[in-house]
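Hi U.,

Before I forget, here's the chain from the pilot set. I'm dumping it here mostly so it's searchable later in email.
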Amino acid sequence: MELKAITLDECLNIRHAVLWPEQSRDFVRVPGDHLAQHYGVEFEAGIVCCLSVFDAGKGSRQIRKFATMKACQRKGFGSFLMSSVLKKLQEDDVQHVFLDSRVSGEAFYRRFNFISDGAPFLKNGIQYVRMHLAPQS
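Structure:
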């Protein structure tokens, strides 16, 4: 497996298929997408997993729209992508990393040292929780 910088269009294809297939493809666009860094994992000549990293200012980055194609879930692609992106952010001396996790995905992010930050909230009818990467000691 290899971490790859991917295009926004490649990322939108996966976001749409995995996160909101019942919506239009434009529904999975978010403000600032054109400025974000998009990363993916390629498998059998196609991108199977993606996430986007947004500059939140003052040494802070937000990870958004993390998705893995259904046929490739629970096979290590997402874990590889998350650990690779976090390593890259650490090498880039990013001081703070946060994300909004679906409550159903919270345990996944805990494996990477993310901790919950506040009460769950609703977004588009789905419960989310804000999480941030715990400081390394």
